[in-house]
Amino acid sequence: MLPTHLTVAYDGNPHTQEALMVAASLAQSWSLPLHLRLITAQQVPPPGALCLAETSDRLASLGRAPTTAERYVGSAATALSSATGPDTLLIMGTHWPQDRQWAWRDTTMDVVLQAAAGSVLVCPAPDLG
């Protein structure tokens, strides 16, 4: 059974960019609405941080612009957990490349997977060298 919509969570970290590519591809293939949740730990993002418009443009260049977009300020674990639901597929990245020792385990991911109210797709981080 397909979800009724997709949510992609992104924090601007280059290691989590795989989630954007996967989300754009799935939204296009399944013809589903795509919600973007840009997560920042602080109210005023640091210089050079991505904004909603830039991230939306990035998704559009990957083949699917988001239907809706929002900035979430606060804990990544809370932002991700609250984006899950029974009819939603949350697509998130990880900051650890898959060839590293703790590639699939970190505190944020543990919290999200334990608290998720729906399906979560975790995309491995690309090895950025």
Taken as a percent bin, the fraction of beta residues is 25-35%
Annotation field: number of helices:
4
Task: Return the structural class.
Answer: alpha/beta
Shape: globular
Unreliable runs: none
> So, CATH architecture?
3-Layer(aba) Sandwich
Mean pLDDT: 82
Radius of gyration of CA atoms, rounded to a whole number? 14 Å
Largest sheet: 5 strands, parallel
| Tally of domains | 1
Strand order of the largest sheet: 3-2-1-4-5
Protein name: Universal stress protein
Structure explained in plain terms:
This protein is of the alpha/beta class and 129 residues long. The chain has a single domain (5-96, 104-123), classed as Rossmann fold (3-Layer(aba) Sandwich), CATH 3.40.50.12370. The chain has four helices and five strands, in the order E-H-E-H-E-H-E-H-E. It has a five-stranded parallel sheet, with helices on both faces. The model has no long low-confidence stretch (mean pLDDT 82).
At a glance:
This protein is an alpha/beta fold and 129 residues long. The protein has a single domain, classed as Rossmann fold (3-Layer(aba) Sandwich), CATH 3.40.50.
List the helices and strands and how they pair.
Blueprint: E1 5-10, H1 17-30, E2 34-40, H2 52-61, E3 68-73, H3 76-81, E4 88-97, H4 107-115, E5 119-125
Parallel strand pairs: 1-2, 1-4, 2-3, 4-5
Which short descriptors sum up this protein?
five-stranded parallel sheet; 5 strands; Universal stress protein; Rossmann fold; alpha/beta; 129 residues
